[in-house]
Amino acid sequence: MILIVVEHANGKVSKSTYEMVTCAREMGREGPVTALLLGSATVTVANEVASLVDQVLVADHADLAQYDPEIWSAAVAQIASEGEANTVLISGSRSGREYSPRVAVKLDAPLLEDVVSITPNEGVISAERYTYLARVTETVVVNAPVIVITPKQAAFAAAIPGTQAAEQFDVDLTLPQRRVQITGKSQEKMSRISLADAEIVVAGGRGVGSAEGFQNLVEGLADALGAAVGATRAIVDAGWRPYSEQVGQTGKTVQPKAYIAIGISGAVQHLSGMGKSKCIVAINKDADAPIFKVADYGIVGDVNQIVPAMIAAIRK
Ligand SMILES: Cc1cc2nc3c(=O)[nH]c(=O)nc-3n(C[C@H](O)[C@H](O)[C@H](O)COP(=O)(O)OP(=O)(O)OC[C@H]3O[C@@H](n4cnc5c(N)ncnc54)[C@H](O)[C@@H]3O)c2cc1C
Fold this sequence. Notes:
Layout (H helix, E strand, L loop, with lengths): L1 E4 L2 E2 L2 E2 L1 H13 L5 E7 L3 H8 L4 E6 L8 H14 L4 E3 L4 H14 L3 E11 L2 E8 L4 E7 L4 E5 L15 E4 L29 E5 L6 H15 L2 E4 L1 H5 L20 E5 L5 H7 L4 E6 L6 H4 L2 E4 L2 H13 L1
Parallel strand pairs: 1-4, 1-6, 4-5, 5-11, 6-10, 7-10, 12-13, 12-14, 14-15, 15-16
Antiparallel strand pairs: 2-3, 7-8, 8-9
The protein binds flavin-adenine dinucleotide.
């Protein structure tokens, strides 16, 4: 079987799970496409995912209410071994990238990270993946009875739900003792749409001038377009925006339909997080700014004049 570990939050299945289903179907490996759901009070999530796959394994347990890499990797490895999975797909999210290597070690399986495409070839898997900050696309061939894969987020199209609901099975797990307890939580104010799910991202850099400039220009344009908000590290380090909005090598990776970069120079560390967006629009007063090398549309000029005019035109 091909085992997909469902990524979910707040009772909703994440977009990356839909993408993993497409990846699983393109692999041409044997067995049913099976979703493994780890969590507590997961009925809604199980029903949503049942429209995507061939069968759903549900591990609904109080101990699984909180993500923990030790527990998640033990649970996934146990189910993969018992079900003789030939492939384990784990989201390329921050947590997925954290526990997937542990799963690979437990299963003595090779791990393919950041996969952007898969081609089956008589039992051998040929995959493309990004490396060197997504500047190089590498082709790898793997021939192993069990493979662990983390697809790059947004690299595969989201699967379309079917009309039939797959059968759901409860599974028992022998879980290790939780060694790390979460004793407190404070949450940063999130932008209106999550960066990972947004079709349009409006991002701002130092060129917006100040936290207030960011609010007026970047948030203003994002509100007008119904887009998510992103920021460069320079902005986050300056304390103008929360880290949750940082795009780039040490922030989030996004691949929206449109990425609008306002006052962003286009440093390689920023490009690695957004350079694969379908359409990039850059606004910068420096015609030689590196962002224009990756932009599909470039506007050379002062963001303080151009962006308010864009907002006014869109609102009209
Ligand atoms: C290990 C490491 C990891 C990093 N990780 C990240 C990361 O994850 N994400 C990230 O973004 N960066 C990251 N960085 C930082 C990165 O190298 C850059 O410093 C940063 O991206 C620059 O941000 P910026 O474009 O906002 O600022 P700047 O590079 O200062 O660019 C500002 C731009 O605004 C333009 N501008 C100024 N005024 C105006 C105006 N009025 N109108 C129009 N344009 C104007 C300027 O021409 C300039 O191009 C990392 C660096 C390191 C070393």
